[in-house]
What we know:
Layout (H helix, E strand, L loop, with lengths): L4 H19 L11 H11 L1 H14 L2 H4 L6 E7 L17 E10 L4 H68 L4 H36 L22 H11 L1 H22 L4 E10 L8 E9 L4 H70 L5 H36 L5
Antiparallel strand pairs: 1-2, 2-3, 3-4
Helix pairs in contact: 1-5, 2-5, 3-5, 5-6, 5-8, 5-10, 7-9, 8-9, 9-10
Amino acid sequence: MKFSYGACLAILAFLLVATQVRAQSGLPSAQPTKLSDILSEAERNNPQIQAARYTWEAAKQVPSQVSSLPDPQAVLQHLSVGSPRPFAGYTNSDFAYIGLGFSQDFPYPGKLRLRGEISKKDAEVAEQKCEFVRRKILAAVKQAYFRLAYLAERTRILDSDRGLVRQVEESAEARYRSGAGNQQEVLQAQLEETKLLREITENQLEADKAQAAIKQLLNRLQSSPDIAPAALAETALPYSYEELLVAANAGSPEIAGMQEMVQRQKLQVELAKKDFDPDFNLQYMYQRTDPSQYRAYYMLTFGVRVPIHRARLHHELAEAKAGQDRAQSDYQAESQEVASQLRQEFATAEKSAALLKIYRQGLIPQAQAELQAGFAAYQSNRLDFQALLNSFLDVLKLDEEYWQTLSERETALAQIEQETGLSLR
């Protein structure tokens, strides 16, 4: 299979231009939106973050309520003598009277304090859940942003690939019209272009989905302008796994929330033990009959709630202890889960960095050198056109794999930031 000298020059020129396009593909054509601006917008407007904050604010209002004494109860009494009519016997009997008083319940000392501390722990758990939701949403925004950046890069790769196929198709048609080629080359070039059209359409569909996802996270209208991401860049990871694990144990909201839950359940056990102690009630009553004949009455009553149903209280205590054991197990499970997830994301980030280095220093330069050597061999009739095309497609494929690996690395780093609370960017 041979091409004319002019066709060879045209293909060579196109290959050089396409290679330059690959080198400059990281530069977006539109003004990109900074990731930091997107994250700030999500933190302000995301409804899940707002709902978590409102839940935390509501939980902070509970401790002062449950640690206060119950409201006192006012009492108005009326006793008539000899008749159900109001004030019957009021002037001729010292038994008829009008009374005014109040009563106050007093829980056993320590109960109100424990209830307040338990509610404070609930508020602290709600605070950690709020932080977890915040980090989770921001990590999801980062993932969607990196996905958009990768899809934008892939679009540029596919467009460049399509331009090459069109050039090949034109050259094949020219050879076919001159009688030097065959129709199969033309059909093969047309088939490749159709495949690329399918991939471009599928890539655009994925980009539309990613736009919809990130707009939802930002609480934007779906009809709002699309987000133009900045070009992907490799982020350094200056920490070892052990250092990240220490940071996660100290700063993970999931672990911190479980620790607060363990402390809460310990307080719940103390409160269940306090329920074996009695509560008290104090009542005071002022009674007034005919002041011209009888003196007023003053009554003070002290009551005690006796916890005689001990079996019920023992069951409550057993329930509280079981809740404490469950919270401790949940804490251990969550610690293991965070350590496992962190190890997986760290391995992904570490191995992807090694892969990116292999792509930059090995695969891509080698593929480009093979393409140049193949073109020289093609010019001297030592290589057919199909092998030359395959060499160039290898360059394009490796380029696409490079950006996909970079996107996966940045996504893994976003997960590490979520688990540890560190800022790596």
